[in-house]
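We read letters as residues; the integers encode the fold. Take this protein.
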Amino acid sequence: MADITLVNLNMLFMRYGEEIERELHVPLGPLYLTRALEDAGFDVDFRDYQTCPSDDPFDMDVFLSFLEDPAPVIGLSCMANLLPFTILAMKALRERYPDRTLVLGGVGSKSVEDKVLTRFPWIDVVARGESERTGPELLAALGNGGDLSAVKGVSYRSNGAIRHNPDRDRIDELDSIPFPAWDKIDLAQYAGYGMMTSRGCPYPCTFCSVAPVWDLESYARSPKNIVDEMAVLNAEAGVDLFLFQDEFFVSGRKQVIEFCRELDRSGLDVKWKAFGRVNLTDEEMMRAMADSGCLELRFGIESGSDKILERIKKGFTAAETLDLVPKAVEIFPRCDTFYVWGFPFETVDDFYQSLFQMVSFRSMGARILPSLLSLLPQTEIYREYAEKTELEFCPYLLPEFVFTGHEVFDSGEVNVPERYDGYFGFITGNPDVFPGFFHVDLENNILPKLKLLREFGFYPSPEGAEEEPDAESCGAHSPKVAPHELATGAEV
């Protein structure tokens, strides 16, 4: 028997009426952990729940069948959108396998570890932060009497009390991390091949849920290390399109130019996509990127209002955006611009500035991808508003960042099937654990802005959904973006 059954629960699964659309993406984080565990001498039973063929993967019998005969330790990794499902799935595992140790990992439980362990007693351990060093130490401790007191980066129960061990120091030499355990999956069945070029972002954007995961510290891999991994995937699996999915790929001119030169020297015939940052990107850099195979550059614009950009600590101005994006549109086959809407301090005048900028960029050929603000617990904006206002849940309007796959997109709105009433009741019953599903001031903040987005064609209107098949909306997980057009997709 394996030492651990490691389960990836991150997946892109969406329902449109009677149709289901799913897209498999290489589970990067769990495969990094798998490699670290195997290098430490442990036997890993890796299972990617994305590959479950069922049209209803959220049925617990389906899940338990997929997890049949697990190892003594079961680790599950999820993001915030599937944290509710993961917690309920772990309850089902506890009932089926009462002798197993259940470990919750991934970024989904960030900042709610104490609440999770206090409220859901079937979860034994919550792993925090980077897993490559914590994982092997945790598994060794569990196999050696179960004393976790010396394992940094974990939260757990001991003698009836919740313990939070000190955070583990960040891995600052990313080149020292072995490549993911590609041999555990069939690479050919995946549509998206993500790669990590850096970890962390130093910018303190108040709405961002990613930078706090890394404590606002950023470390980068060397260009050669990145290209070496691309060469392995290209040679062994024919991968010729890569997504650099970390938000801080463009961390500076020197790093980007050196990567482009290294890729050119390698002779690899590959293409790639990346995120950029308005205040760190210039025309010379973009041309070097395009010349070395970059097909798509994405910018997190967030707002067209300088007042809002300053309020959310974005680090650049609307004028910088207006100067850069038209150049990017001319240089790259595709340029994506992401906006966040629903800020509770954003006036209608502020929002109009965003709308006018979005309309302008759309006319130039940029793809506009607005996303509703998601108040995840690690964000500064959530901490600011959680104690002074009551969060509201709207069953037909969920932030795109937390689409779960239980919802059905129909006629321009989200509908929750009756069979999942209990699931969303679990969410609404624990708003402090799952705040990303909630809103601030639906009546005066969210709904008026949604109406404007529909009027400008960025979101489909319920009465005209069939007449507006090309309306763009909702960001990378949009129900209005076909799989081959997803920002994370493998096709161009």
Remarks:
- The two ends are 43 Å apart (CA to CA).
- Residues 466-492 have pLDDT under 50 and may be disordered.
